[in-house]
Specification:
Layout (H helix, E strand, L loop, with lengths): L10 H4 L3 E5 L9 E5 L2 E7 L5 E9 L5 E6 L1 E4 L2 E4 L20 E10 L3 H8 L5 H4 L16 E4 L6 E10 L10 E11 L2 E8 L2 E16 L2 E10 L6 H20 L6 E2 L12 H13 L5 E2 L9
Parallel strand pairs: 15-16
Antiparallel strand pairs: 1-7, 2-3, 3-4, 4-5, 6-7, 8-14, 9-10, 10-11, 11-12, 12-13, 13-14
Length: 303
């Protein structure tokens, strides 16, 4: 495949909070190196257990990294940082504050694809019976019922509403198939979550989120987070279920061509079930996102 031309993120991405580490993987006095938006960074904890992040701009005397402190916050079991001027607060997930919920960082894996491609895949109901057969979908029950998509005028978040799909095993705690009710929310160009029928409490919804750490324009760390109502499964069981589902997506994502997400509507064939994908691409364009995408009107066909 052709190499991806270098991209420099503009303010629409630079000035956001980005996930860079699972908090439970960090230890005081130790430093973890990673990448964000083509920059090398280090992540650690201070003596009080709060996350810290540094931009590695060179090598200091003695061979250690020369630190340039970055803004850092702990949220949803992850450390988040920014290479620009981020908002005062990260987007809210109020369900996480409910006392009977299990809040878990469940899975992280590197995927050779852009962050927008990963988000778009998360929004795709149509792939369930084929990629997650026997779990999130089942042939021949492949039809995606009509749903609606809107942008919240107050928050400018993208929502897909009134989604539903039959699932043989909707969650780790499931004992039978169910028609799951779904609501998708995109509060951040590289983060997406869904609110899904809880198999153990019909009046409430489990929350499953994908937080993408863009290592480069076409490589991502695929982080998943769950806030679930489940008094039956162990933490390990919940993580194993989500790991299985996420691992099934990895080869599909890495075979996407091009790896960057085209924002030109009509560049790729779409059907009614792709309504969320079409809206997401337009939304990214309206935000001015220029990293991990092929902007509309460029005619660029990078792989």
């Amino acid at each position: 495949m052709d190499a991806i031309a270098p991209q420099a993120p503009g303010p629409a991405i630079l000035d956001l909070w980005h996930p860079v580490a699972i908090l439970a993987d960090l230890q005081a006095g130790e430093t973890m190196r990673t990448r964000l938006l083509d920059r090398d960074i280090a992540v650690g904890l201070d003596s009080a257990g709060a996350p810290l992040a540094w931009l590695i701009t060179g090598e200091a005397q003695g061979g250690g990294p020369a630190p340039e402190p970055l803004p850092t916050v702990a949220a949803y079991e992850f450390a988040w940082t920014s290479l620009g001027v981020p908002p005062a607060e990260i987007f809210a997930i109020p369900e996480c504050d409910e006392p009977d919920r299990r809040n878990l960082a469940t899975f992280s894996v590197g995927v050779h694809v852009s962050a927008p491609r990963a988000v778009e895949n998360f929004l795709d109901l149509g792939h369930f019976p084929y990629v997650h057969a026997g779990i999130l979908g089942q042939v021949p029950r492949t039809e995606v019922a009509d749903y609606r998509v809107e942008v919240d005028p107050g928050t400018n978040e993208l929502w897909a509403l009134d989604c539903e799909f039959f699932q043989p095993q909707a969650a780790a705690a499931s004992t039978d198939g169910q028609v799951s009710q779904y609501t998708y929310r995109v509060p951040h160009p590289y983060c997406v979550m869904l609110y899904k029928s809880c198999p153990t409490d019909e009046s409430r919804f489990d929350v499953i989120a994908l937080f993408c750490q863009a290592l480069s324009a076409d490589r991502v760390l695929f982080h998943t987070f769950m806030s679930v109502i489940d008094e039956v499964s162990s933490d390990a069981g919940i993580r194993a279920f989500q790991t299985l589902v996420s691992a099934q997506d990895k080869p599909i994502l890495e075979n996407q061509t091009p790896r960057l997400l085209p924002l030109e509507v009509g560049d790729e064939t779409s059907v009614r079930s792709d309504r969320a994908s079409v809206a997401y691409r337009r939304w990214l364009g309206d935000l001015g996102v220029d990293y991990g995408v092929i902007p509309a009107g460029t005619g660029d066909e990078c792989s």
